[in-house]
Design a protein that fits this description.
Layout: H1 2-6, H2 16-26, H3 47-65, H4 73-92, H5 99-120, H6 127-133
Helix pairs in contact: 3-5, 4-5
């Protein structure tokens, strides 16, 4: 609580948790991994909703950190292959799963990858297209000013 009182959340449209982490690190705080701290976080979005959510997430990463998701054919192939391999391993341990479940995971992975690529390049997209791609309907691209 003391850290949040010193370094409050900034008003941003997306990725406020990532920006808070950056601000806390810049203020001299440290991040720590605590294995006993459980977090339940789950979304069950269809592919279009997932793509739009990922567009917003990666646009925010571009605005906050200047991060652009690697988009070479090799990077995209490796990413998709990794996501599908992980899904196959997870599904193999669950009785009653079938190929339709793997197809659902593949659609999810493709949606995430497309959203990440579009969001990583949001600054070059026309504002009306950004609005359509955004789950928030936000047309802007607002790079964060470095407070240092």
């Amino acid at each position: 609580r003391a850290a949040w009182e010193q370094v409050p959340f900034r008003e941003v449209s997306y990725a406020e948790d990532r920006l808070l982490a950056l601000d806390l690190l810049r203020a001299g705080f440290a991040k720590a991994y605590i294995p006993q701290a459980g977090v339940l976080h789950s979304h069950h979005h269809g592919p279009l909703r997932e793509m739009r959510r990922c567009f917003d997430e990666w646009r925010a990463l571009r605005e906050i950190y200047g991060w652009r998701e690697p988009g070479s054919p090799l990077a995209l192939t490796r990413s998709l292959r990794g996501q599908l391999s992980q899904a196959r391993r997870e599904l193999a341990g669950k009785p009653g799963t079938n190929s339709s479940e793997l197809a659902r995971v593949a659609a999810h992975a493709l949606a995430r990858t497309l959203g990440a690529q579009l969001g990583s390049h949001a600054e070059v997209l026309p504002a009306p297209l950004r609005r359509v791609l955004s789950s928030e309907g936000r047309a802007g691209f607002e790079p964060l000013e470095d407070p240092r």
